[in-house]
Specification:
- The structure is a single chain.
- The chain contains 20 helices and 2 strands.
- With 415 residues, the chain is mainly alpha-helical.
- Strands 1-2 form a two-stranded antiparallel ribbon.
- The longest helix is centred in the middle third of the chain and has 22 residues, at 153-174.
């Protein structure tokens, strides 16, 4: 404990003393008795502090610390997991959670503190040692994915955070690189995508809201780093998205996270990838537009804008029948566009989304077109929404459909 306090107090100046202290801390972890969880916890916390505050002096010990954190990431002497690994992805999606596979042997178990300290120490190693990324993918990545099943929720969040740090470091270090080198972090990450999705799908079936939010956070970061990596897995992810948006127990935070991920995945993959799932995906998204909490509504409207581009990616040539989705999308956006008593962010998102709808579906709107264009003109007359409305009309005017604006053109020009 004193070593931990000293490292936090004096920072990098503790570096010259690491040769004496680090071996002692590692010895404490490996030789402590089974009941001395606090000693292991404090030792791992001290190592975490050294990694962040003395990155140069601790370099020679990083391999040992990595092995130590991976060992204690799954340290759980009072817990037996009898669940067998399911390697069949299709069967994996259908399986239900089976609590009977997990056996608890100690109600006062404190080993979770050791696992949590190991997870945060590993995250510090990932953040401070970008040169170890390839090694981390070989040794740490599979272990982290396996520990998504962690039974203590607070520890699970730290495991998620450590994995997110691994993804962020990958994005920072490999930005602009081509994935042809089989030893590169991006290439190694691609090999793990199927395992990540399987493990995350298991978490999206959990009852815990916090777990689901953490799972979507992992997926979001994955899509940012590898924009097209989920093309073969969209179908398996749809049920998790649908449940997060439609389940009565879902919180606004969970719905927002699910919608942000949906928007990211829609923008980063080919539209044709989603066409088999548009019906299942669009229904909960359109329902979310009617949510009372403005952040959920605004994000749902942004997703609707991406849906428009997905169902009709090319106005002149397309192989997907988008017409059944035109009026449902239009109706929910129009209901928000005409509602004055709502947050500024929602108003702007509704205006932008309607501009996309008109520019893309204008020739399928019929009598609805003369109804919505004057509403957009009205928004141009409001100083708060004027700029957004002008941009919406710019999108409409640039449409290859040559939208007839004669009924509002004079008012638009005057504005």
């Amino acid at each position: 404990m004193k070593m931990l306090q000293s490292s936090r107090a004096v920072g990098y100046r503790f570096g010259p003393h690491l040769g004496e202290t680090v071996p002692v801390l590692i010895s404490y972890c490996t030789n402590a008795s089974e009941n001395d969880e606090e000693l292991r916890e404090y030792s791992l916390q001290a190592l975490e502090s050294f990694l962040l505050r003395c990155p140069r002096d601790i370099s020679s010990y990083c391999d040992q610390i990595l092995s130590l954190t991976l060992e204690y990431l799954s340290y759980d002497p009072n817990f037996t997991d009898t669940m067998e690994e399911d390697t069949d992805e299709e069967n994996f999606e259908e399986e239900e959670d089976d609590d009977s596979a997990n056996e608890y042997t100690d109600d006062e178990d404190a080993s979770w503190k050791v696992r949590r300290a190991a997870a945060t120490c590993l995250a510090a190693l990932i953040v401070s040692r970008p040169e170890m990324l390839s090694k981390l993918y070989v040794e740490a990545c599979p272990k982290l994915i396996d520990r998504f099943k962690e039974r203590e929720e607070n520890v699970k969040m730290d495991v998620f955070n450590a994995f997110i740090e691994l993804l962020r470091q990958t994005g920072n270090v490999t930005k602009g690189q081509i994935d042809i080198d089989e030893s590169s972090p991006r290439w190694l990450l691609k090999q793990e995508v199927a395992k990540i999705v399987r493990s995350i799908n298991r978490q999206l079936r959990e009852k815990s809201i916090k777990t689901k939010v953490g799972a979507f956070a992992v997926l979001k970061e994955l899509v940012v780093v590898l924009p097209d990596c989920l093309a073969d897995h969209i179908g398996s992810l749809i049920p998790g998205i649908e449940k997060a948006l439609s389940d009565k127990s879902s919180t606004s935070n969970l719905k927002t996270e699910a919608l942000i991920f949906t928007r990211l995945v829609l923008t980063s993959h080919s539209p044709s990838v989603f066409h088999p799932y548009i019906k299942a995906l669009s229904s909960p998204v359109l329902s979310a537009v009617g949510e009372r909490y403005y952040k959920v509504t605004a994000e749902a409207l942004r997703v609707c804008g991406e849906l428009v581009c997905v169902v009709c990616p090319n106005i002149e040539v397309h192989g997907f029948d988008f017409k059944p989705y035109v009026h449902p999308i239009y109706d929910v956006i129009m209901s928000r566009l005409t509602n004055q008593d709502q947050d500024q962010e929602v108003k702007e998102c509704a205006i932008s989304c309607m501009g996309l709808v008109v520019s893309t579906f204008g020739d399928n709107l019929g009598h609805q077109l003369p109804a919505c264009l004057p509403v957009l003109v009205d928004r141009m007359g409001n100083e708060i929404t004027r700029l957004t409305a002008v941009k919406a009309f710019a999108v409409i005017a640039a449409s290859p459909l040559c939208i007839d604006l004669s009924c509002v053109l004079e008012h638009v020009i005057s504005q």
